[in-house]
Specification:
The protein is 67% helix and 1% strand. It has 328 residues and is mainly α. The N and C termini lie far apart (77 Å).
């Protein structure tokens, strides 16, 4: 004879506002008090990071905008006055500032263009997976590991006309008869600045493009080869369109970084000879920390940021068209 166990009391209260047994897989519902405590805990954990973000980015940016509308000199802070848009009007009217902006654009175009050309060639050479190519790709990282200021110091010594290696070996192989003062003439100073940037950052472009080439599936190339496409036609019609997103990433990252260049040119040429290599970052630095004109430097920095915000999206739209990096 089997005795029937009485049903648990909680079953009688299902659906009547009492306890209800949670079925398997049904999520537990937190009480309002528990949710409030979790929210407070979350905000408490995030608060230090938010405060650091406000202190290091938001407040300085807001002060920069505020200072750009004032005539503020660090030597006479009590004489600061509100001048409205005068600092911005001076940027448009000052030929030296326009010269600095043109020098910056020329530097970015030459440096990034040459780095992309050399980087693409290196990527095509090293894209095939082998032990030798792996070693070569590892060695490519070494120039990027050198601090830009240190590389500029070394470059300056190599280009010294009295004891530099560059002049010495160029004379040994017969390419020149007299030493060249590379940093004393505008043309040779530009060659030195561009060659330093190309030496240090071409590997960055090459590694990105090499990763893109190694990620291209073999089927499109094999189908194009069956149709008779070889050499340049195979690269331009099949490989390069598939490589376009990586090209956009490499060029955009290098463009943004080239616009931020400061230490290498400051150490190597100091903007000289004259103002032939005076990029906009050097001008901002001198305006703020040598002339102590904070208001003018703030307006110049904001104007430079506006120019970048216009150039970069257009570059992305051109370089990454028909890819997932841009919509439509």
């Amino acid at each position: 004879m089997t005795l029937q166990q009485p049903a648990p009391a909680w079953r009688d209260r299902v659906g009547s506002g009492g306890l209800r047994r949670r079925s398997r897989g049904e999520p537990a519902t937190a009480s309002p008090v528990g949710r409030d405590q979790a929210n407070r805990l979350g905000w408490g954990l995030v608060a230090p990071a938010v405060l650091v973000l406000l202190a290091l980015t938001i407040f300085p940016a807001a002060y920069l905008v505020y200072a750009s509308f004032r005539s503020y000199n660090l030597m006479t802070p009590e004489a600061a006055t509100f001048v409205g848009l005068d600092n911005y009007r001076n940027i448009v009217a000052d030929p030296d500032l326009r010269h600095s902006m043109l020098v910056t654009l020329l530097f970015v175009v030459l440096a990034v263009g040459i780095e992309f050309a050399f980087g693409l060639c290196l990527a095509l050479i090293l894209a095939r997976k082998s032990r030798e190519n792996t070693i070569a790709a590892t060695l490519l990282i070494l120039p990027m590991a050198v601090t830009p200021v240190v590389s500029a110091l070394v470059w300056r010594e190599l280009l010294n006309p009295n004891y530099g290696w560059v002049d010495y070996y160029l004379r040994r192989i017969g390419l020149m008869h007299e030493p060249v003062a590379w940093l004393s003439q505008p043309v040779t100073a530009w060659i030195a600045v561009i060659s330093l940037d190309v030496w240090q950052w071409t590997p960055f472009v090459a590694l990105i493009l090499m990763a893109g080439l190694q990620g291209i599936p073999p089927e499109p190339r094999e189908a194009a080869a069956v149709d008779g496409a070889t050499g340049w036609r195979l690269f331009w019609d099949v490989i390069f369109p598939l490589l376009r997103p990586f090209v956009a990433i490499a060029v955009l990252l290098r463009t943004l970084d080239a616009f931020k260049t400061f230490g290498t040119i400051d150490v190597l040429t100091g903007g000289g000879p004259g103002v032939s290599t005076e990029i906009i970052n050097l001008t901002i630095y001198r305006t703020a920390l040598q002339d102590f004109s904070v208001g003018a430097a703030a307006a110049l920095g904001i104007s430079f940021l506006v120019v970048l915000s216009i150039i970069v999206p257009q570059m992305l739209r051109i370089l990454a068209r028909n890819s997932d990096l841009v919509e439509g």
